[in-house]
Amino acid sequence: MADGLGLGRNVFSRMVREERSDSCLRVNRYPLLMCGVETLSGQNLIGFGEHTDPQIISVLRSNNTSGLQICLTDGTWASIPPDHSSFFVNVGDLLQVLLTRDIKDFATSEGMRQFLITKDVDFSLGHCV
């Protein structure tokens, strides 16, 4: 991935291996669809809610539960089919800024009928919370 981005070959592995690394492994459990709860825009809250990924990259692997969605450039939401044998790589806000020097409004949303568990590895420049 680093080669494709024109970065040093070991840039990501150094982030994980360094003793003072801020990288972390986080397991998320996204809640069920909550009927009747509304966002500030007046729409129903969908799963974890609309959000961006602030770190450099997130590597996701689902528990084969549908619900992951991404916002396309035209503002429509597209569902990503679950695949428990694949990893989903999300470019985070920080990498977007590092590569383009531009902050865009990217968002993902999870609208689940059952809960979704993802395992993701966050490469960031700050501490995990």
How many strand segments?
7
The residue-averaged pLDDT reads 67
Strand adjacency order, main sheet? 1-7-2-5
How widely separated are the two ends? 26 Å
Short summary:
With 129 residues, the chain is α+β, with helices and mostly antiparallel strands. The chain is built from 2 helices and 7 strands; from the N terminus they run αβββββαββ.
Task: Tell me about this structure.
InterPro entries: IPNS-like_FE2OG_OXY (IPR044861), IPNS-like_sf (IPR027443), Iron_ascorbate_oxido_reductase (IPR050231), Oxoglu/Fe-dep_dioxygenase_dom (IPR005123). Residues 20-129 form the Fe2OG dioxygenase domain. The protein has 129 residues and is α+β, with helices and mostly antiparallel strands. The protein has one domain (25-123): Jelly Rolls. The chain is built from 2 helices and 7 strands; from the N terminus they run αβββββαββ. It has helices spanning 11-17, 93-100; strands at residues 24-30, 57-60, 68-71, 77-79, 88-91, 108-110, 116-123. Strands 1-7-2-5 form a 4-stranded antiparallel β-sheet. A 3-stranded antiparallel β-sheet has the order 4-3-6, with no helix packed on it. It is globular. The chain starts with 10 loop residues before the first helix and ends in a 6-residue tail after the last strand. Residues 110-120 and 124-129 have low confidence and may be disordered.
